[in-house]
Amino acid sequence: MSTAVQLALGVGVPDPHRSDGPTVVSLAAARTIAAVAEQVGLAAIRLVDGGPSGRTLDPTVVAGYLAGVHGGVGYVTEIPTTRHAPYNVARRVLSLDRATAGRVGIALQAGQGDEVSAVTAPVPDATDPTRRWTEYARVLTRLWESFPQSALIGDQQAGVVVDTARVTPINHEGVFYRVAGPLDGPSSRQGRPVIVADLGALDATAVAESVDVVVVDRSSAADADATVTEALGRVGRSRHDVALLGRADLAGYTPATAGTYGDELRDWAAEHRLDGVELVAKGGSDAIVTALRTVVPRLTDPASTPATLRAALGLSEVAAVLA
Amino acid sequence: MSRQLHLNVNILNAGVFGGSWRFPGTDATASYTIAHYTSIAKKAEQAKLDAVFLADGPALDPSIAHRTGNNLEPSTVLARIAAQTERIGLIATLSSSYNDPVEVARRLGDLDHVSGGRFGWNVVTTAGSVAARNFGRASEPEHAQRYRRAAEFATHVVASWAARTDLVSPQGRPVVVQAGGSRDGRRLAAQVGEVIFSADQDLAHARAFRAEIRAGAAEFGRRPEEVVILPGISTVVGSTEAEARARRALLDDLLPDAYARARLAGQLGFSLDGLSDDEPIPAELLVEPDAAGGSQTFFRIVKTIIDTENPTLGQLLKKLSGGAGHRIVVGTPEQIADDIETWFRAGAADGFNVMPDVLPSGFDDFADHVVPELQRRGLFRTEYDGRTLREHLGLPLPSAHLEVTAS
């Protein structure tokens, strides 16, 4: 069985004195890494926002830019709820997803609110980041489905662009947000962008309803499958609806042992019923390139060319899930 | 070298005319694909234009049943265009009412860096309750309040760019673009705008507008020549005048009537239901522009046409042709170049924000025939001199520290 691989990487200005977070590389180095990622069959590059190892560029800007050059790999953009109204994030991420023909996801980070939404928050003093995350993710998924691709008709004879009967507002009214919708553009080739959640920062119950990919730290990997399965079951979803990735550093080996490291990761994934791994970039860009070339082929088949990020992660497309 | 024109292309989905997406030979839904935008940007770069421009509002346009709408978020589109081009400037519209200034400052400053100093931010306040409802509001904030926030927002964003020490771009910071023609909008333009998009049907009015903005900039302690004023111009190009007129007539025929009425009702802020195409709009329905709550610029333009020409509703709809109220110029490449040259030499414009009738075909005609004519006349560059948007526009590098002027 193929194991999906995602690389976590920051793009911006490295801090030469720090190396405790994911590596931050320059935009030029990121282009090189994205080219290699495309060749070796990486599912996605997760573009880290912030972190201790340097100042990062906005992940949606980087994703838009890199996908314009290397469109054969997926891009997962880290975006916090803080300072971002959900309608704006839904639009931006879906725009990226449509531009890449369905290769984009969001790693939504739990946080605080934004000043625009705060003015009209249904419960003004609500602050719990986890509850906010749950509501935010629900708003995203509903907005992404508010304008189905099939509603875009473009009938020149009849003078009809969109069948508006199939475009529906979401009229969301929750604790943190009030969002009418619908979105301004149609759904993407993969149905909707992928939502990624980090277990630990968030609990499985909080993310169960909307998540597509759960990432778990190496130390918690042993229990993750059972925890996630149970949480999904409680909301009527199957474990097959979600890809579970174990997080591991892309470091701690020599070129000679890199292949062995890849084998170890594959066995580790199989042992804990992980669907893939998130490799956290460590070291310089040359080391990352070398590691991708040696480690990834042990995990994933470079000859397989999935059409979308969902397919690369072994997930069904949303339309199929909804049918 | 003599003063040179500045030209942007406004990639307004399928084109500025309401019937553009139905024009023969046009792919009806091409404007819902990213390739539509990247290929027009590449063409604009070949034609040595200053920039591509993307209008935007965070909402689904209610007229979507009958005409294409803007449907891709501009900062993501321009990041992709930045990766696939070298020189062309990149201008995106982002709302000051519905964004967080810290977030926008970071994202747009980063886009400027990633593009090598080619980015410009068009600050808009976003009229309309449709957008408001996507951010929890029942209706838009009141006009003056929107502009107060816009001024504070823009000042904050520019100050944040000025304070950057890393990930800075070769042009120092993004160019600030402003488009409001209302009293509040003109004040904001004079205060922070480096490029002003205006909408004017009349040369004398446009010349007065330009003079007012330049004088206003001076009052804020700025140099008037550091403000570039670009009226919108909708172009319908034909190889003969008759061909151009036929193209315009066909576009009028293709305009879905339901759309034209809905669009005008939105611009005027009242319903047109029950009004006959054969009679003028009753005068009592028309308030003074400064009292209009939505886009005062377009209200003023439409009201001026009504006041001066007293058209029937049907004639008015045809004149506007579902466009945004910008001036429509129909003719051969030479005639369109004549018009552009006249406005430019009269001091009514520093250049134009070109809104082709149909995209991509109308822009191809403009780039292939009107631009070379302007180049022959020595009015427009034949090669880029610089690499950044500021260099294209002839704007100086901003000083490292923001000079905050009291308003």
TrEMBL record, chain A:
Keywords: Flavoprotein, FMN, Monooxygenase, Oxidoreductase. It comes from the Bacteria. One of its GO terms (molecular function) is monooxygenase activity. The keyword Flavoprotein applies. Residues 16-243 form the Luciferase-like domain. Transmembrane segments: none annotated. It holds the Pfam family Bac_luciferase. The keyword Acyltransferase does not apply. Gene3D superfamilies: Luciferase-like domain. Signal peptide: none annotated. This is LLM class flavin-dependent oxidoreductase.
TrEMBL record, chain B:
The lineage of its organism: Bacteria, Bacillati, Actinomycetota, Actinomycetes, Micromonosporales. GO terms for molecular function: monooxygenase activity; oxidoreductase activity, acting on paired donors, with incorporation or reduction of molecular oxygen. InterPro entries: Diverse_substr_monoxygenases (IPR051260), Luciferase-like_dom (IPR011251), Luciferase-like_sf (IPR036661), NTA_MOA (IPR016215). It comes from Micromonospora endophytica. Belongs to the NtaA/SnaA/DszA monooxygenase family. Residues 25-348 form the Luciferase-like domain. CDD domains: Nitrilotriacetate_monoxgenase (cd01095). Keywords: Flavoprotein, FMN, Monooxygenase, Oxidoreductase. This is LLM class flavin-dependent oxidoreductase.
